[in-house]
Amino acid sequence: MLDLTPSAVTKIKSLMEREKAEKAMLRIMVVGGGCSGFSYDMDFEDKPGLMDKILEFDGLKVCVDPESMKFLGDTVVDYSDSLQSAGFHFTNPQATATCGCGTSFAVG
After folding, report:
1. H-type alpha helices, 1-108
2. What is the pLDDT of residues 20-48, one digit of tens each?
3. What distance in Å separates the CA atoms of residue 49 and residue 42, rounded to the nearest whole number?
């Protein structure tokens, strides 16, 4: 099942507050594109779709559509802020390859 680390949850809540996001939840999705075929995307959402899976992490609601959930499986979303890189990082055990920049992945 998809998981968010405490640092990812804290950062997302901070972004929602800073942007005064009136949208109630975060959407995580997998979209076609990038060097390896698929990439991750996140956006704030008003309400979930009828078939979306709703997850909750320390009060943060996350919605994922069924097609994206097939690719996310046991993915862990983390946030780090270091001198080398700052941002969200997806660790997906289903990914069989990733591109050099780390923004897209392939499966199967």
Report:
1. 6-18, 66-72
2. 767 789 999 999 887 778 899 999 988 89
3. 15
Q: How far is CA 91 from the centre of its chain?
A: 10
Structural domains of the chain ordered from first start: 3-107 (2.60.300.12)
- Gap between the Cα atoms of 37 and 72, Å rounded: 14
Q: Report residue 72 as tokens.
A: 């996310």
DSSP-derived secondary structure letter, 22: -
> How far apart (Å, rounded) are the C-alpha atoms in residues 35 and 15?
28
Q: Which residues contact 90 (CB under 8 A, 6 or more apart)?
A: 40, 75, 76, 77, 105
